[in-house]
């Protein structure tokens, strides 16, 4: 329990090391993880995911012109 009285329970969705989970397991893991107070997709990505927010910073000006 944290100092504010809230529980800090969650999962490192996708796993912390080892092989990547298959797509079905990953989706189920995310569905479960979002129901917990702490949710992170940690140390897992493939070609269809963004690794860091910095990776998309160069795309922002192009998208912001649309709005």
Automatic annotation (TrEMBL):
Source taxon at top rank: Bacteria
UniProt keyword list: Glycosidase, Hydrolase
InterPro entries named in the record: GH, Glyco_hydro_31_TIM
Signal peptide limits: none
GO molecular function, one term: hydrolase activity, hydrolyzing O-glycosyl compounds
Protein family membership: Belongs to the glycosyl hydrolase 31 family.
Name this polypeptide is given: Alpha-glucosidase 2
Coiled-coil intervals: none
Domain Glycoside hydrolase family 31 TIM barrel: 1-47
GO biological process terms, semicolon-separated: carbohydrate metabolic process
């Amino acid at each position: 329990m944290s100092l504010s009285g809230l529980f800090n329970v969650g999962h490192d969705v996708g796993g912390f090391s080892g092989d990547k989970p298959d797509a079905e397991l990953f989706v189920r893991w995310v569905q479960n993880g979002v129901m917990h107070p702490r949710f992170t997709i940690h140390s897992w990505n493939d070609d269809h995911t963004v690794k860091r927010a910095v990776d998309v910073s160069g795309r922002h000006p192009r998208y912001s012109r649309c709005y």
